[in-house]
Each structure stands twice: as structure tokens, then as C-alpha cells.
Design goal:
By secondary structure, this protein is α/β, with parallel strands linked by helices. 31% of the residues lie in helices and 22% in strands. It has three domains: 171 residues, D-Amino Acid Oxidase, Chain A, domain 2; 234 residues, 3-Layer(bba) Sandwich (FAD/NAD(P)-binding domain); 32 residues. Strands 1, 2, 8, 9, 10, 11, 17 and 18 form an eight-stranded mixed sheet that branches. The protein has an eight-stranded mixed sheet with strand order 5-6-4-13-14-15-12-16, with helices on both faces. It has a two-stranded antiparallel ribbon with strand order 3-7. Helix 2 runs parallel beside helix 8 and helix 2 crosses helix 11.
Length: 470
């Protein structure tokens, strides 16, 4: 077992296993009742996270007369939607490079749709008065080793040709923005990312749905789907909904469409939050632009300032448990928190002594192409989307739009995309899945430690258009 530095561990002495976003927030809404008995509706949405709420809201915006019911097994936003880092990135493909590797011919269209989608989210926040601390600050993707900076100039050129507005910053320029001795350069995306309070965004979407006439039932886990004449019956422990169409927004939880389960695995992501920085501490790191930040390693960190100038610091470790078990007791991971704290202090040594106050983790779904995919079943009366790989705050709205297109039988620019029409390569069954993921993670760590040089295993995965970069 790796020995932990006592100096680092002192920074974790007061940390609590609590979600920072839920810490006595007065905007948290009242609970909804469970579904009791049977009812009918035009559209039944399963899941009340971002994807489900966007689906319900967009369905009502497209047709205010459409009856919409949402079923949630816990409470609204109980999964990844309510506990992520609050990065609302425009990317629909988990980053530009990943998209270029998989959908090079379609990337100009995908990038345009991505920017339009982010603009529509901002417009929705304003239209419905959603209080979610929305900040269109942009994002810095920083290189913390010289090899990570290589290729950024070419990436920026390609992105700008496709309509993005990104800038390459050299070492001096990026360190002038944020004072870290590790930075070797960066790509600055001026408007392709916003920062939000993720829980408040969920709650705001929930209120917008209710105002539009959507009915939401919590603590109503869907047990199975049943084909019936003219629709699908959605069974819960105490009742059922018979709907003409069903949208599945279950994310990391086992899909009600069994054949879809092979495409995703749950991996665990973790985050820490510091106490608020003093004016002197904030001045010592700069960061006046309040940009969201992610570094460029294969195993990367993401970090941001919160509304009270605490620092949220997460990522790096992505942990897969054998057979994909996603149990609550692994939501708190002391070893990972020690690793994150160590990396934090290397990035900002001037903040030594700053305490971490909150720590949490949870499962996200990932697929072999790291971007969402879609499917239908029950003679196209049911549609699903999953595979966001932790970058779903914005892309869930796009995912919901595509699901509605599929359910409504629409031929749109979105549904014609290869990324919509084709699914990723499935993961192998256990125990080969666990072996595959562990070898890949070991190889990615080795690449980070050897100036990005990839071994034969990673080259083989790249040949088959596979990988496990996040």
C-alpha cells in the first residue's frame, strides 16, 4: 500500500463526505409523491436527471398539448446530474480530438450543433429564470508537461476553421492567467464552456417542467416495460403508466433494454472542495477570469472556482469495480482523496494549509467512444440515450432532442449523424471486461509517465478506433 504524506493528509483532516452543492441550499424543492395506481400519457420519461428533464421540457415546448409524465426511482437529480463539477461544455464528443478521431467528416456539423446547443441552454436558463450561478467563463485546457502542449496549435487551427473561437497560450501567457508552476501552455476556449451549480440547474429544469404541465413522480423505480396495443406499459412497484412513447434517461443505472447494457460500464469519479479562499490566497493564484480548467493528461483533473471562491478539484482516478458494481459505500474513497490533494498542492503550492471541507464521488456511465449513443426498441415506441462519460451537463440537452426526434419519427440533421445512427463497440463480458479496462488504465498511466508515448496495447486500441482516455 502506498504511503501517504502526513503533510498532505493534514489538509483532509476536516473533510466531510457530503455533496457541496446540497449544503443547506434554500432552493432545493419539495419532494414529489410516488406513483400509486395507473394512468395514461402521451410520453413517459424514465429518469429525472438532466436527460429526463430536458426530454420532458423540450417535449412540452414542441407541443404544449402533449401529456408528459416523468418517473424517478429516487429523487430528482439524485444521480450524476446533481453531483458533477458543473462544467457545461459545448462538446458533444467528449472533446474535439476524440470527435475528430471518430467522426472526422461530420465534425464541422457536430461542432456547429454543439455551439447552438450551448447557446440554447443559456437562453433556457434566462427564459425560465433558473438560478444556477450560470457563468459563461470559457475553459482552459492546460498542458502540465511539454508533450501535452505539442499538437495544441494544430488543434486550435482546425477548431477555428470549424467556427470555434480558441486561442493557444504559451507558458508565460497561461501562467499570467492562473499562477501555477506546472503549466507549460494551454488552449483557451473563450465561449465554449459555462460554469453552473449543477444541482440548482436540475431544480430549475424541474420547476420549468412543472410549470409547463409535466407530472413528476419520485421513489417510483421502473421495473419493466410491457408492449401493449398502441403503446408501452411502464411498471413501477405501486402502479403503471401506459404511454404512447417512452424515453429512457437512466444513464449509469442498468438499462431497461437489456441488449443496451453491453455498451456501457460504470466508473467512479471523485471530487474535493476547499474552504473559501481569502483575498490574499485568491490573489496568489490569479484566476481573475474564473475559467473552468482541465489538464491534458490521459488521466486528467478538472477544477473551478465556486460562487464563494472555494476550489472544486476532481477527476484523475476513474475506478471500475469488477462486474460494474456501483454501490454507495464506494462513493467515498479515502485513497483517491489523498491522491487528489497531493496533485492539488503540486499545482498550487502557494495554497499549502488550505483545508478541504467536502468530498464525494459516484458512478458515471462510459462507453468505448466516450460520447453519447442512441437506440430504439419496442417498434420504435421506446428510445434511449446513454454513454455521456462525465461530460453530459450540456450534451444531455442534445441527447434529449435526438431522442424526441427518434420517437416522433423525424428526419433531422441530428438524426442523420453517424454518431446517432451507429453505436459504439460493446465491452467484452466479464472477466475480460475487467482485464481490458485495467490493462488500458495501466497503459494510459504509463503513457502519462513517459511523455505521452503509447505502448502496443494503446496502439492496437487506436487501430480499432477504441480507447479509454477518460
Amino acid at each position: 500500500m502506498e504511503k501517504k504524506d502526513p503533510f498532505v493528509l493534514r489538509h483532509l483532516a476536516e473533510v466531510q463526505p457530503e455533496l457541496w452543492w446540497l449544503d443547506a441550499d434554500p432552493l432545493e424543492p419539495e419532494s414529489h409523491a410516488a406513483l400509486i395506481g395507473e394512468l395514461g400519457t402521451d410520453l413517459c420519461v424514465v429518469g429525472a436527471g438532466y436527460t429526463g428533464l430536458w426530454t420532458a421540457l423540450l417535449a412540452k415546448e414542441r407541443d404544449p398539448h402533449r401529456e408528459v409524465v416523468v418517473l424517478e426511482q429516487f429523487e430528482t437529480g439524485a444521480g450524476a446530474s446533481g453531483r458533477n463539477g458543473g462544467f457545461c461544455s459545448a462538446s458533444l464528443t467528449h472533446g474535439f480530438t476524440n470527435g475528430m478521431n471518430r467522426f472526422p467528416k461530420e465534425m464541422p456539423v457536430i461542432e456547429r450543433l454543439a455551439r447552438e446547443n450551448l447557446d440554447e441552454i443559456e437562453a433556457t436558463v434566462r427564459r425560465y429564470g433558473i438560478e444556477c450561478d450560470w457563468e459563461r467563463t470559457g475553459e482552459l485546457r492546460v498542458a502540465v508537461a511539454p508533450w501535452q502542449f505539442a499538437g495544441m496549435i494544430e488543434e486550435a487551427r482546425l477548431r477555428n476553421e470549424m467556427g470555434d473561437h480558441v486561442e493557444v497560450l504559451d507558458r508565460d501567457a497561461v501562467r499570467a492567467r492562473i499562477h501555477s508552476p506546472l503549466y507549460e501552455g494551454a488552449i483557451y476556449d473563450h465561449d465554449g464552456n459555462a460554469l453552473v451549480d449543477p444541482a440548482r440547474l436540475v431544480w430549475g429544469l424541474e420547476r420549468a417542467c412543472i410549470a409547463a404541465g409535466v407530472r413528476i413522480f419520485e421513489n417510483s423505480k421502473v421495473e419493466r416495460l410491457e408492449d401493449v396495443r398502441g403503446g408501452v406499459r411502464v411498471h413501477t412497484p405501486y402502479g403503471a403508466v401506459t404511454a404512447m412513447k417512452v424515453a429512457l434517461a437512466t444513464n449509469v443505472f442498468p438499462s431497461l433494454i437489456r441488449q443496451a447494457r453491453k455498451y456501457v460500464v460504470p466508473v467512479f469519479d471523485y471530487a474535493l472542495v476547499t474552504e473559501p479562499l481569502s483575498d490574499e490566497q485568491l490573489a496568489s493564484i490569479g484566476w481573475s477570469g474564473r475559467e473552468g480548467v482541465a489538464d491534458s493528461g490521459n488521466q486528467f483533473h478538472y477544477y473551478r472556482l465556486t460562487k464563494d471562491n472555494s476550489i472544486l478539484w476532481g477527476g484523475y482516478d476513474t475506478i471500475y469495480n469488477f462486474r460494474g458494481k456501483a454501490r454507495q459505500h464506494v462513493d467515498f474513497n479515502a485513497a483517491t482523496y489523498a491522491t487528489l490533494a497531493t496533485h492539488f498542492l503540486k499545482t498550487f503550492p502557494q495554497l499549502a494549509g488550505l483545508k478541504f471541507t467536502h468530498a464525494w464521488g459516484g458512478a458515471i456511465d462510459t462507453c468505448t467512444r466516450f460520447s453519447p449513443f442512441w437506440g430504439t426498441s419496442h417498434e420504435k415506441k421506446v428510445a434511449y440515450v446513454m454513454g455521456y462519460t462525465g461530460l453530459g451537463v450540456a450534451s444531455t440537452r442534445f441527447g434529449a432532442s435526438v431522442m424526441l426526434d427518434l420517437l416522433d419519427g423525424l428526419d433531422t440533421e441530428r438524426t442523420r449523424l453517424t454518431m446517432v445512427r451507429k453505436k459504439p463497440v460493446p465491452f467484452p463480458p466479464e472477466p475480460f471486461r475487467w482485464i481490458f479496462i485495467r490493462i488500458t488504465q495501466w497503459s494510459l498511466q504509463r503513457a502519462d509517465d513517459h511523455e505521452g508515448r503509447r505502448n502496443l496495447w494503446l496502439k492496437l486500441l487506436a487501430f480499432f478506433n477504441l480507447g479509454f482516455d477518460s
